[in-house]
């Protein structure tokens, strides 16, 4: 949600990929891909954004905190980021999602969006459940 220098962003992508592989993720056993190359994430986020009301997003504590820390009114990208997160989860029809306590409300938004979509268009998305770690 914050502008980045293209060279820095490219290096961050490489560094993150290296860190994932260094942690022992085996690309022969799982899919490792650059999400930004999968246009369906943005496409589904647009569709889900058309089903999500603004007052709900404005109530999310992360929006309020980040907006305050940026000393600004906030950006559309920051406001709608939880909808993109919901699209990231729902696109793959995820049923269980590992989240930290700070992301529980975003997962609840994804659950609500899935239920709203299913009610309007028929059962399509599973309603994802949180996997909370004690760490």
TrEMBL record:
GO biological process, one term: mitochondrial tryptophanyl-tRNA aminoacylation
EC number: 6.1.1.2
Any one annotated GO CC term: mitochondrial matrix
GO molecular function: ATP binding; tryptophan-tRNA ligase activity
Alphabetized InterPro entries for the sequence: aa-tRNA-synth_Ic, Rossmann-like_a/b/a_fold, Trp-tRNA-ligase, Trp-tRNA_synthetase
Source taxon at top rank: Eukaryota
SUPFAM superfamilies per the UniProt record, alphabetical: Nucleotidylyl transferase
Gene3D superfamilies: HUPs (3.40.50.620)
Keyword list, A-Z: Aminoacyl-tRNA synthetase, ATP-binding, Ligase, Nucleotide-binding, Protein biosynthesis
Protein biosynthesis keyword on record: yes
Ligase listed as a keyword: yes
Sequence similarity: Belongs to the class-I aminoacyl-tRNA synthetase family.
UniProt name for this protein: tryptophan--tRNA ligase
């Amino acid at each position: 949600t914050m502008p980045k220098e293209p060279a820095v962003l490219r290096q961050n992508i490489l560094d993150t990929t290296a860190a994932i592989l260094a942690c022992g993720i085996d690309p022969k056993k799982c899919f490792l891909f650059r999400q930004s190359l999968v246009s369906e994430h943005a496409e589904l986020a647009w569709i889900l954004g058309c089903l999500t009301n603004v007052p709900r997003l404005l109530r999310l504590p992360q929006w309020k905190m980040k907006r305050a820390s940026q000393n600004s009114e906030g950006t559309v990208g920051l406001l709608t980021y939880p909808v993109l997160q919901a699209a990231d989860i729902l696109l793959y029809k995820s049923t269980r999602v590992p989240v930290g306590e700070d992301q529980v409300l975003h997962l609840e938004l994804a659950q609500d969006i899935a239920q709203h979509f299913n009610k309007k268009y028929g059962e399509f998305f599973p309603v994802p459940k949180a996997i909370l770690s004690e760490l």
